[in-house]
Design goal:
The protein has about 130 residues and is α/β, with parallel strands linked by helices. The chain has a single domain, classed as 3-Layer(aba) Sandwich (Rossmann fold), CATH 3.40.50. It is about 30% helix and about 25% strand. The chain has three helices and six strands. The strands form two sheets. It has a four-stranded parallel β-sheet, sandwiched between helices. Strands 1-2 form a two-stranded antiparallel sheet. Strand 5, helix 3 and strand 6 form a beta-alpha-beta unit.
């Protein structure tokens, strides 16, 4: 699942098409299934600051992703495809990869397998409500 790529127009505070405002950064955020709900504020803040956000949920996430090769492979595959799309849509922009909660291990694995594909890496943990 990909979240819509919206940017908040700085002057009007309204959502505009992603091409209406030129972004300066691409963020690829990968989350376990159901995890993007806890990322809404971060996605909105990134968009408001001029970033374009590709947010993906990965369905086959195990509790211990580092021990489940199939689930780890799904995360790496999702990241690879999303980065390819992001680079095609916004060539030349820096790309930051965010691995949220249990997908953090997959994000780290991706950067080890494909060094140089991202400008930065952020690993986050789900907080208790």
């Amino acid at each position: 699942m990909t979240i819509a790529l919206l940017q908040r127009h700085a002057e009007t505070g309204t959502d505009n098409d992603r091409l209406a405002v030129l972004p300066h950064l691409v963020v690829v955020l990968v989350s376990p299934a159901g995890g993007l709900g806890s990322c809404g504020t971060v996605i909105s803040e990134l968009s408001a600051s001029g970033a374009v956000v590709y947010a993906e949920e990965v369905d086959s996430i195990a509790a211990r992703l580092d021990l489940d090769c199939a689930a780890l492979s799904d995360v790496v595959w999702t990241i690879s495809n999303t980065l390819e799309r992001a680079n095609a849509d916004f060539p030349g922009l820096p790309v930051v990869l965010v691995g949220h909660a249990s997908t953090a291990a997959g994000a780290l694995a991706f950067t080890e397998l494909y060094p140089g594909q991202c400008t930065g890496l952020v690993l986050t943990e789900r907080t208790a409500a």
